[in-house]
Write a structure and sequence with these properties.
With 313 residues, the protein is mainly beta. The chain is 1% helix and 32% strand. The strands form five sheets. Strands 14-15-16-18-17 form a five-stranded antiparallel sheet, with no helix packed on it. A four-stranded antiparallel sheet has the order 6-7-8-9, with no helix packed on it. The termini are far apart. About 13% of the residues have low confidence.
């Protein structure tokens, strides 16, 4: 059944850059995880982690769950996760979903991505099929990652967690702790960095990541940016480059790991402090920023620009 949207009063908050106004569009959702805007003011697709995909209209009306959505493994951090629409949505109406899918024993799961066609009445996904599976399935409920981003050339990037199985982020025969790059139908691009190498998954774009729950395309440069959770502090923003190693679990700013020039996090830190990697001994590329705060967590990434924050090349 559709949910009832109730108007909530606007709230204002002070910030360093001026007053911020927050308006509630819709309420009553259960663990909403991701959203994707539909074209021409049709509203947005919203995932709920337990397995529902809904459309919220521009005026805040929350629709009934769509049919045709795959069954998900909704345990721990798992469930129905990210949603993205095809770059050619007006022509093909394709919707992409990432979600936790259980293994044969039901005790472990991995991130899976599939796509289906949104019906003309916006009530269901037709012909849903899987285009990618994280193998092997190692998560007992943690670190699925799962953000989906299309680049300007139509390639699909999937930001994956390491299922809390730390060493696997360095194993190139596994898909844990990786950014992967595929075509919209799931095929592997011929120019991926590890194509043709033995015992290496050809989908891999970059590796050595922990739990990437944020990803966005830089609208000015066209580059993929990701952010990932650190263990206790040490959250990162990265610009993943093909074939590069981003270091997890070797080096990370946190009480469990060390990098030579990163200050250890302070429990009393009131805001994030981002530092650029300059140590030279870390295996990660230099285009990585880290937070040394232990008090916040950053699950998403987006971009914005205005007169106050003009675009940068």
């Amino acid at each position: 059944m559709p949910l009832t949207a109730t108007a909530a009063p606007e709230r204002t908050f002070p910030s360093e850059e001026g007053q911020l106004t927050v308006s509630t569009l819709a309420e009553g959702l259960k663990n909403p995880w991701a959203l994707a805007f539909l074209p021409d003011g049709q509203g947005m697709l919203v995932t709920e982690r337990q397995g529902n995909l809904r459309i919220i209209s521009a005026d805040g009306k929350v629709g009934s769950p769509l049919s045709g959505v795959p069954q998900v493994w909704a345990k721990g951090q798992g469930g129905l996760l990210d949603v993205a629409v095809s770059p050619q949505f007006k022509q093909d109406r394709m919707v992409y979903l990432s979600y936790a899918e259980g293994g044969g024993d039901g005790d472990t799961a991995g991130t899976t991505v599939g796509r289906g066609r949104l019906s003309s009445d916006n009530l269901r996904l037709d012909d849903f099929n899987v285009i990618f599976r994280q193998q092997p399935k190692l998560s007992s409920g943690n670190h699925f990652g799962s953000r989906l981003v299309f680049d300007r050339d139509g390639y699909l990037f999937i930001a994956l967690g390491e299922n809390n199985q730390r060493p696997t982020a360095q194993d190139l025969d596994k898909l844990q702790g990786k950014v992967v790059r595929i075509l919209p139908d799931g095929q592997v691009p011929k120019d991926n960095p590890f194509v043709g190498q033995s015992n290496v998954r050809p989908e891999i774009w970059s590796y050595g990541h922990r739990n990437q729950q944020g990803a966005a395309l830089n609208p000015w440069t066209g580059e993929l940016w990701t952010n990932e959770h650190g263990p206790r502090g040490g959250d990162e923003i990265n610009i993943p480059k093909p074939g590069k190693n981003y270091g997890w679990p070797w080096r990370r700013t946190a009480s469990t790991t060390r990098c030579c020039r990163y200050p250890r996090p302070r429990a009393s830190a009131s805001r994030a402090r981002w530092t650029r990697c300059t140590c030279g001994r870390s295996p990660r590329p230099s285009a990585a920023w880290r937070s040394t705060t232990t008090r916040v967590s950053r699950p998403g990434t987006t971009t914005c620009s205005s007169a106050r924050w003009p675009p940068r090349s």
